[in-house]
Structures are given as C-alpha cells and as structure tokens.
Amino acid sequence: MRFRKIISLLLATAFILSACSNQSAQEKIYNHLEEAVSLEDTFRKQQKPLMELEEKEKKLYNQIIDLNMEEFEQIKELSKEAASVVKEREEKLKSEKESIDAAKEEFDKIKPLIEDLSEEQSEAKELANQLVEKMENRYNAYQDLYKAYQNALDLDLELYEMLQQKDLTQEELQKQVENINASYNAVIKANEQFNTYTNEYNELKKQFYDASGLNVTYEDSAGSESKDSQNNSKETN
C-alpha cells in the first residue's frame, strides 16, 4: 500500500487596498485572517522535514527486516536509530500542532468583528459566519489528524522496542505491523477530511473578500502547496 500524505494549506493574499488610519470591519477581519495564515508558517515548514524523516525511518525498517537473528546486535542498533527518528517526527508533529493552535486563536479574533459589518454587507456577513463554521470544522479535523498520527507514532515506537527483544516471535511482529498499518489508514482518512475543509475554507475566504470589496491578489504558493509522504505502512518477511 502506498501512503501519500497531502496537506492543504490556508490561502495567502496580498492586500492592495490603500491603508487608512481608521480601518473598516472588513479590513480588520482581513488582517486577522492573513495573520492566521502567517502563523501557519511553522506548520508549512514541518511538511518537508516530516517527509524526509519518514523516508529515513522506512529505509531503516527495511534494513532491519532484511537481517536475521544471527545479526541481532545490528538489529538492536538499527532499531534504536529508527526509534530516535520516530521521536524526531514526534517533535515535528508537536511544532505543527502548536502552529495550527496559534493560527486558530488568531482566527477567532474575527468573531466579534462580524457584527460590525454594515447592513449593506449582508452577503459578506453571511460568508464570514460560514468562514467561522468552516474553520471550526477544519480545526476539529486537524485534532483528529493529530491524534491519529500520534497514535501511529506510538505504535512505531512500540515496534522498535519489540525489535530489540531477542524473544520476539513472528506472530507478535506481524500483529504489531498490522496495527501500525491500520493506524496509518486512519491517518489517511483524517488527512483527507482536513484537506477537504481547508479547500472549502479557502474558497469561502475568496468569496468573502469579493463580497467585502477588498482588492486582494492571491499567492499561488500558499493555497496549492502539498507534500508527499513516504509509504509508512510496513511489511514483514
């Protein structure tokens, strides 16, 4: 099974409307929305390192299962190295989550501003309320993704601890590998839901800016960026 991890990102824009000292409600909302994008920079930056660490761990695992018990000391050393890579992945995941949490906190600042939109901006107000709902969905979907990925990492660590035990049976190894592969299937599903909400949010944000009369340009690199992940499923000999 191939595992392709694709992360959708918030769409960034550039504000063209001339600045003024007394900002309108829609301009204040714009500032918070784009600051939320900026706060997800750390989230973006974790994607490539995560992919590289996944690839490194996969290679180590493949080396391990190609060895036999006469090479047990080498199995132990490689297992320890693989476990350290999993812990590095865990640190990247933690940074990713902190970035998402900070962005959500910034986004929430638009909520009291929505009521400040004028009666003539009823369409913009409706779209802003839809944005709030969509962001809540996206944030909750990320929490599910985070939990699923953390569970997969925990199982990976358990695997490398097991591989350091000389009395490990083939049946025990097979069962652990099956649990790991099931956990990454859960990651895939959670990731797909997160991406769906992200794409829907980005489209709503465009509609809100249009309805608000904000003159913005869209940066191609932000909304469409994605990262591939190595296959995290595992096999046994």
UniProtKB/TrEMBL annotation:
Listed Pfam families: YkyA
Coiled-coil residues = 50-207
Q: Where is this region: Disordered?
A: 218-237
Keyword vocabulary terms for this entry: Coiled coil, Signal
As given in the record, the signal peptide range reads 1-25
Superkingdom of origin organism: Bacteria
Question: What name has this protein been given in UniProt?
Answer: YkyA family protein
Which organism is this protein's natural source? Halobacillus shinanisalinarum
